Amino acid sequence: MTTQESNSSRSVTIRAESLSKIYGDFAALHSVTFQVRQGTVAAFLGPNGAGKSTTMKILTGYLAPTAGRAEVLGHDPTHPEQRIALAQRLGYLPENGPLYADMTPRETLEFFGRVRGVVGLKAAIDRVVQQCAIAEVFDKPVGKLSKGFRQRVGMAQALLHDPEVLILDEPTSGLDPLQIREVRALIRELGRSKTILLSTHILQEVEAVASEVIVVGEGRLVFSGTVDELRAGGSVEQRFYALMDQSKRRKEAA
Predict the structure, then answer these.
(1) DSSP letters along 176-222, please?
(2) Which of 1, 115, 213, 215 has its Cα between 20 and 30 A from that of 170?
(3) 3-class DSSP state for residue 62?
(4) CA–CA separation, 214 and 46 (whole Å)
(5) Nearest to 198 by CA among 36, 64, 25
(6) Per-residue pLDDT tens for 207-234?
Protein backbone atom coordinates (compact mmCIF):
# COMPACT_ATOMS: atom_id res chain seq x y z
CA MET A 1 0.00 0.00 0.00
CA THR A 2 1.39 3.43 -0.92
CA THR A 3 1.68 6.30 1.59
CA GLN A 4 -1.12 8.13 -0.21
CA GLU A 5 -3.41 5.08 -0.05
CA SER A 6 -2.53 4.56 3.64
CA ASN A 7 -3.37 8.18 4.43
CA SER A 8 -6.66 8.06 2.51
CA SER A 9 -7.78 5.03 4.52
CA ARG A 10 -7.42 6.88 7.83
CA SER A 11 -10.33 8.80 9.31
CA VAL A 12 -10.22 12.59 9.35
CA THR A 13 -9.45 13.72 12.91
CA ILE A 14 -9.19 17.51 12.45
CA ARG A 15 -11.26 19.36 9.88
CA ALA A 16 -11.44 23.05 9.02
CA GLU A 17 -14.04 24.12 6.47
CA SER A 18 -13.96 27.67 5.06
CA LEU A 19 -12.84 29.13 8.40
CA SER A 20 -12.87 32.93 8.51
CA LYS A 21 -12.26 35.28 11.44
CA ILE A 22 -12.90 38.99 11.02
CA TYR A 23 -11.96 41.72 13.51
CA GLY A 24 -13.57 44.93 12.30
CA ASP A 25 -11.93 45.63 8.92
CA PHE A 26 -9.16 43.07 9.47
CA ALA A 27 -9.46 39.48 8.24
CA ALA A 28 -7.23 37.28 10.41
CA LEU A 29 -8.47 34.22 8.47
CA HIS A 30 -10.11 34.05 5.08
CA SER A 31 -11.93 30.85 4.09
CA VAL A 32 -9.25 28.38 5.28
CA THR A 33 -9.97 24.71 4.55
CA PHE A 34 -7.80 21.71 5.43
CA GLN A 35 -7.92 18.34 7.18
CA VAL A 36 -5.58 16.20 9.27
CA ARG A 37 -6.00 12.44 9.29
CA GLN A 38 -5.64 10.10 12.25
CA GLY A 39 -2.07 9.27 13.26
CA THR A 40 -0.53 12.20 11.38
CA VAL A 41 1.98 14.78 12.60
CA ALA A 42 1.05 17.89 10.63
CA ALA A 43 3.04 21.11 10.71
CA PHE A 44 1.01 24.31 10.42
CA LEU A 45 3.54 26.62 8.78
CA GLY A 46 3.48 30.33 8.18
CA PRO A 47 5.11 33.62 9.17
CA ASN A 48 4.10 35.43 12.33
CA GLY A 49 0.66 36.97 11.88
CA ALA A 50 -0.40 34.51 9.17
CA GLY A 51 -3.39 33.22 11.16
CA LYS A 52 -1.95 30.08 12.77
CA SER A 53 -2.80 30.89 16.39
CA THR A 54 -6.27 32.12 15.42
CA THR A 55 -6.96 28.82 13.66
CA MET A 56 -5.76 26.80 16.65
CA LYS A 57 -7.91 28.81 19.05
CA ILE A 58 -10.93 28.05 16.87
CA LEU A 59 -10.06 24.34 16.70
CA THR A 60 -9.79 24.18 20.50
CA GLY A 61 -12.92 26.20 21.18
CA TYR A 62 -11.29 29.35 22.54
CA LEU A 63 -12.57 31.43 19.62
CA ALA A 64 -15.67 31.17 17.44
CA PRO A 65 -15.18 31.67 13.69
CA THR A 66 -16.94 34.50 11.90
CA ALA A 67 -17.80 31.99 9.18
CA GLY A 68 -17.11 28.35 8.41
CA ARG A 69 -16.88 25.43 10.81
CA ALA A 70 -14.33 23.30 12.63
CA GLU A 71 -14.49 19.69 13.75
CA VAL A 72 -12.08 17.73 15.95
CA LEU A 73 -12.71 14.04 16.65
CA GLY A 74 -16.25 14.51 15.38
CA HIS A 75 -16.97 17.35 17.83
CA ASP A 76 -17.77 20.97 17.08
CA PRO A 77 -15.41 22.88 19.43
CA THR A 78 -17.63 25.99 19.34
CA HIS A 79 -20.63 24.07 20.74
CA PRO A 80 -20.51 24.26 24.60
CA GLU A 81 -21.49 20.66 25.33
CA GLN A 82 -19.37 19.22 22.52
CA ARG A 83 -16.40 21.32 23.63
CA ILE A 84 -16.56 19.74 27.09
CA ALA A 85 -16.62 16.26 25.57
CA LEU A 86 -13.75 17.18 23.26
CA ALA A 87 -11.63 18.45 26.16
CA GLN A 88 -11.45 14.88 27.49
CA ARG A 89 -9.74 13.75 24.26
CA LEU A 90 -7.75 16.82 23.25
CA GLY A 91 -4.49 18.25 24.59
CA TYR A 92 -3.68 21.90 23.87
CA LEU A 93 -0.44 23.78 24.45
CA PRO A 94 -0.93 27.46 23.57
CA GLU A 95 2.08 29.64 22.79
CA ASN A 96 3.41 30.95 26.12
CA GLY A 97 0.89 28.68 27.82
CA PRO A 98 -0.54 30.04 31.07
CA LEU A 99 0.99 28.47 34.17
CA TYR A 100 0.78 29.63 37.78
CA ALA A 101 4.22 31.01 38.67
CA ASP A 102 3.91 30.27 42.40
CA MET A 103 2.96 26.63 41.88
CA THR A 104 5.48 23.84 41.39
CA PRO A 105 5.15 21.38 38.48
CA ARG A 106 3.90 18.83 41.01
CA GLU A 107 1.16 21.20 42.23
CA THR A 108 0.36 22.25 38.64
CA LEU A 109 -0.16 18.68 37.46
CA GLU A 110 -2.16 17.72 40.56
CA PHE A 111 -4.39 20.77 40.01
CA PHE A 112 -5.01 20.11 36.31
CA GLY A 113 -5.50 16.42 37.02
CA ARG A 114 -8.21 17.08 39.60
CA VAL A 115 -9.93 19.62 37.35
CA ARG A 116 -9.99 17.10 34.50
CA GLY A 117 -11.02 14.24 36.75
CA VAL A 118 -8.06 12.10 35.68
CA VAL A 119 -8.41 8.54 36.94
CA GLY A 120 -5.19 7.12 38.39
CA LEU A 121 -3.72 10.59 38.75
CA LYS A 122 -0.46 9.57 40.44
CA ALA A 123 0.38 7.11 37.65
CA ALA A 124 -0.57 9.73 35.03
CA ILE A 125 1.71 12.31 36.68
CA ASP A 126 4.57 9.79 36.85
CA ARG A 127 4.09 9.09 33.13
CA VAL A 128 4.24 12.72 31.98
CA VAL A 129 7.11 13.59 34.32
CA GLN A 130 9.14 10.90 32.58
CA GLN A 131 7.90 11.79 29.08
CA CYS A 132 8.70 15.48 29.50
CA ALA A 133 11.85 15.03 31.63
CA ILE A 134 10.85 17.43 34.41
CA ALA A 135 11.82 15.32 37.47
CA GLU A 136 14.75 17.58 38.38
CA VAL A 137 12.50 20.66 38.67
CA PHE A 138 9.39 18.89 39.96
CA ASP A 139 9.26 20.80 43.26
CA LYS A 140 10.62 24.17 42.13
CA PRO A 141 8.25 27.12 41.54
CA VAL A 142 7.31 27.43 37.88
CA GLY A 143 8.22 31.12 37.97
CA LYS A 144 11.82 30.18 38.75
CA LEU A 145 12.17 27.77 35.82
CA SER A 146 13.83 28.40 32.47
CA LYS A 147 11.68 28.91 29.38
CA GLY A 148 12.57 25.39 28.29
CA PHE A 149 11.40 23.78 31.52
CA ARG A 150 8.23 25.91 31.59
CA GLN A 151 7.48 24.67 28.08
CA ARG A 152 8.00 21.08 29.22
CA VAL A 153 5.63 21.61 32.17
CA GLY A 154 3.06 23.01 29.74
CA MET A 155 3.51 19.95 27.55
CA ALA A 156 3.12 17.69 30.60
CA GLN A 157 -0.24 19.23 31.52
CA ALA A 158 -1.41 18.87 27.90
CA LEU A 159 -0.49 15.16 28.01
CA LEU A 160 -1.76 14.40 31.51
CA HIS A 161 -5.11 12.93 30.45
CA ASP A 162 -3.46 10.95 27.60
CA PRO A 163 -5.35 12.74 24.79
CA GLU A 164 -5.84 11.29 21.32
CA VAL A 165 -5.10 14.63 19.64
CA LEU A 166 -2.48 17.25 20.48
CA ILE A 167 -2.60 20.84 19.24
CA LEU A 168 0.67 22.62 19.92
CA ASP A 169 1.16 26.33 19.21
CA GLU A 170 4.84 27.13 18.55
CA PRO A 171 6.09 24.42 20.96
CA THR A 172 9.79 25.24 20.43
CA SER A 173 9.47 29.04 20.48
CA GLY A 174 12.16 30.67 22.63
CA LEU A 175 14.03 27.45 23.38
CA ASP A 176 17.76 26.94 23.02
CA PRO A 177 19.09 24.45 20.42
CA LEU A 178 19.38 21.55 22.88
CA GLN A 179 15.87 22.15 24.23
CA ILE A 180 14.51 22.35 20.67
CA ARG A 181 16.10 19.00 19.88
CA GLU A 182 14.56 17.41 22.98
CA VAL A 183 11.06 18.79 22.28
CA ARG A 184 11.22 17.63 18.67
CA ALA A 185 12.25 14.15 19.80
CA LEU A 186 9.27 14.10 22.19
CA ILE A 187 6.88 15.17 19.41
CA ARG A 188 8.19 12.45 17.10
CA GLU A 189 7.70 9.85 19.84
CA LEU A 190 4.18 11.07 20.64
CA GLY A 191 3.37 11.02 16.92
CA ARG A 192 3.63 7.23 16.97
CA SER A 193 0.30 7.01 18.81
CA LYS A 194 -1.40 10.43 18.53
CA THR A 195 -2.60 12.89 15.91
CA ILE A 196 -0.61 16.11 16.26
CA LEU A 197 -1.08 19.55 14.73
CA LEU A 198 1.73 21.93 15.60
CA SER A 199 2.13 25.49 14.41
CA THR A 200 5.53 26.90 13.61
CA HIS A 201 7.26 29.62 11.63
CA ILE A 202 10.54 27.64 11.69
CA LEU A 203 11.14 25.89 8.38
CA GLN A 204 13.47 23.26 9.89
CA GLU A 205 10.65 22.15 12.16
CA VAL A 206 8.69 20.81 9.21
CA GLU A 207 11.27 18.29 8.06
CA ALA A 208 12.31 17.47 11.64
CA VAL A 209 8.93 16.26 12.92
CA ALA A 210 6.15 16.29 10.32
CA SER A 211 4.87 14.12 7.50
CA GLU A 212 2.14 16.57 6.41
CA VAL A 213 2.28 20.35 6.12
CA ILE A 214 -0.32 23.10 5.92
CA VAL A 215 0.94 26.52 4.85
CA VAL A 216 -0.89 29.80 5.43
CA GLY A 217 0.00 33.32 4.39
CA GLU A 218 -1.90 36.57 4.85
CA GLY A 219 -4.71 34.60 6.54
CA ARG A 220 -5.23 32.32 3.53
CA LEU A 221 -4.39 28.68 2.85
CA VAL A 222 -1.63 28.46 0.23
CA PHE A 223 -0.66 24.77 0.48
CA SER A 224 -1.81 21.51 2.06
CA GLY A 225 -0.12 18.18 1.41
CA THR A 226 2.83 15.98 2.31
CA VAL A 227 6.30 17.31 3.04
CA ASP A 228 7.51 15.52 -0.11
CA GLU A 229 4.86 17.33 -2.15
CA LEU A 230 5.96 20.66 -0.66
CA ARG A 231 9.57 19.86 -1.60
CA ALA A 232 8.63 19.09 -5.22
CA GLY A 233 10.59 21.43 -7.46
CA GLY A 234 12.90 22.70 -4.72
CA SER A 235 13.78 22.70 -1.04
CA VAL A 236 11.23 23.39 1.69
CA GLU A 237 12.77 26.84 2.12
CA GLN A 238 12.57 27.68 -1.59
CA ARG A 239 8.99 26.46 -1.90
CA PHE A 240 7.90 28.27 1.26
CA TYR A 241 9.20 31.65 0.15
CA ALA A 242 7.71 31.15 -3.31
CA LEU A 243 4.32 30.45 -1.72
CA MET A 244 4.64 33.57 0.48
CA ASP A 245 5.44 35.69 -2.58
CA GLN A 246 2.38 34.30 -4.36
CA SER A 247 0.24 34.99 -1.30
CA LYS A 248 1.48 38.57 -1.06
CA ARG A 249 0.85 39.23 -4.77
CA ARG A 250 -2.64 37.73 -4.49
CA LYS A 251 -3.47 40.04 -1.59
CA GLU A 252 -2.13 43.12 -3.41
CA ALA A 253 -4.19 42.24 -6.48
CA ALA A 254 -7.40 41.75 -4.49
Answers:
(1) -HHHHHHHHHHHHHHTTTSEEEEEES-HHHHHHH-SEEEEEETTEEE
(2) 115
(3) coil
(4) 8
(5) 36
(6) 999 999 999 999 999 999 999 999 887 8
